[in-house]
Amino acid sequence: MLSLARFQIQLAYKWWVMLTVALGMLMSLMDSTIVNIAIPQMQRAFVASLHDVQWITTIYMITQAMVIPLAPYLTSLLGSKRAYLWSLSSFLLGSLLCGFAWNLPSLVLFRCFQGIGGGVLLPMVMILQTQAFPYEERGRAGSMMGLVMMVAPTLGPFLGGYLIGSFGWQWAFFINVPLGVIAVTLAQLVLKPTQGQAGTRFDRGGFLTSACGIALLLYAAPAMVSNGPTILDTVLFGGSCLSLALFVVLEQRRARQGQMPLLNLRRFRDPTFTFSALTQILIFFVWFGVLFLLPIYLQTLHQETPLQAGLIQGAISLATLVILPFGGWIADRFSPRTAVIPGLLLLACALAALMLLTLDTPIWLVVCLFLFLGMANGMTNQVNVAALSRIRQEEAEAIAHASTLLSVLRAAAAPLGVAIIASFVQRQSQQIQQTLAGQGLSVAVLQRQSELLALHTSFLLAAFLLLIAFGTMCCVPPR
User: Fold this and answer.
1) How distant, in Å, are the alpha carbons of 39, 121, 476 from that of 97?
2) CB 42 within 8 A of CB 187
3) Global pTM?
4) Which of 259, 347, 385, 456 could be joined to 336 by an S-S link, Cβ 3.0–4.6 Å?
């Protein structure tokens, strides 16, 4: 086997770590976009309803959110290298099993297994990256990882569309096999081994209460917005709040007793981390909700084909790719806060500008609005760097807990944003349609116009939420 020194040809160790974890992140993010493209083909293959087939996506997100808190424990027990290899291998095996699924229940089960590896993989990427880079270079490192996060959703639809159309839905999962083998091999060769801590005990109570609380929240909250507060959904939402409150009590008691908690919630005593985390929640809630709405506007209202819509929406990723290095430079040269605060104002303005969209907006104007949106998003990418800015490079345990907390918050905010904003648009559309019904419009025009006005309202709401995020980011200490 090649020695580490021989393998690292004239390139600093930190950049080999970046390359290694970026490949793992790329594989995980591409999987999500490619699977979404394969959903219609899976529905036909399994003769399933849309309600049933959506569990292929839902179970993966819920499982991810439930197991993310395991990352600090696995890092402490196995060391960061072995924990990362374990998560990669689990994700790879889960992908292989999904490709061989014979019916919908088996696929949902294997997606659950795949989500275990994918959930731990997300915070492990941040842990290894933060451990490898000193504070003064974390902005640049965050920008590099942001490039991967933009490339994946841009490349995924094109690559996935070709593979699924040519070889079947199974290749939505088989594509992970060659990428996973390369990622595991690279991690084995590059990452320096770290020792786990002997006698590390698993926090069973913390894991059970957090997992139940997160799962119930992700199921009940969107259902309450979509269907109204039914008795069952209200009970489940109350159970999630009770479970999460019990989790906080158990973790605080465990920390006072000198035992290792599943998640060290004392990190929230740091105002830099707390206000940055609140800002991140609002950004992810808004951003993923808006990204869900834009294809609806392009394909349903503007009458573009899926390929044309993908090319137009690619303007967002392209603009973000251009701005990300500039945002990283500002974060390293001054502070992450200096990049995020103006970015939030620009992003709020960009979302408000989307209210200019009409049923027949010229393509050049749509592209310009999307470029503005992507540029603003590139500046806000440094919020993670801000959250971790008071943790030194050698504080491995603090990095693990803080990175995992951020991953948990992201994993909960993104699907909640999609579900709640989508439900808000649906309700607004129905109300506006009733208001416009007496104006003599045809049914098709009435439906499209009411959806467009509902989208305008949601864009305005998203801009308002980002102004709140601007306020929370201003509370972050300037240095």
Assistant:
1) 17, 18, 45
2) no
3) 0.74
4) 385
Pick the closest to residue 351 from 469, 449, 432, 450 (CA basis).
469
Task: For residue 303, give every residue at least 6 positions away whose Cβ sits within 8 Å of its Cβ, in sequence order, or none.
Answer: none
pLDDT, position 136: 64
pLDDT at 7 over 60: no
User: What is the pLDDT confidence band of residue 459, given thresholds at 50, 70 and 90?
Assistant: very high
Q: Is the pLDDT of residue 9 over 50?
A: no
The single-letter code of the amino acid at 35 is V
Q: Could you give the CA distance from residue 147 to residue 140 in angstroms, rounded to a whole number?
A: 11
Ramachandran region of residue 47, left (φ > 0), alpha (ψ -120 to 50) or beta?
A: left
Name the residue type at position 164: I
SS3 of 168, please?
Answer: coil
Coil/strand/helix, residue 28: helix
119 to each of 67, 87, 124, 390, 409, how far by Cα in Å?
6, 8, 9, 25, 12
Report d(CA 173, CA 31) in Å as an integer.
7
Six-digit token string for 115: 């989500």
pLDDT confidence of residue 242: 92
Going by pLDDT thresholds of 50, 70 and 90, the confidence category of residue 438 is low
Total residue length of the chain: 479
Count of CB atoms within 10 A of residue 9's CB?
7
- pLDDT in the model for residue 440: 62
How many C-beta atoms lie closer than 10 Å to residue 155's C-beta? 17
What is the pLDDT at residue 265? 78
Identity of residue 417: G
Identify residue 373 by its one-letter amino acid code.
Answer: L
Predicted confidence band of residue 2 (pLDDT cuts 50, 70, 90)? very low
Task: Report the run of H or E that residue 199 belongs to, with start and end.
Answer: none
d(CA 74, CA 87): 10
H helix or E strand, kind and range, residue 85: helix 80-99
Find the helix or strand (DSSP H, E) in which 173 lies. helix 171-174
> Do the beta carbons of residue 357 and residue 122 sit within 8 Å?
no
Given a contact cutoff of 8 angstroms between Cβ atoms, the answer to whether 1 and 65 are in contact is no
> What residue type is assigned to position 466 of the chain?
L
Distance between CA atoms of residues 408 and 212, nearest Å:
13
158 closest CA partner among 281, 72, 33, 14: 33
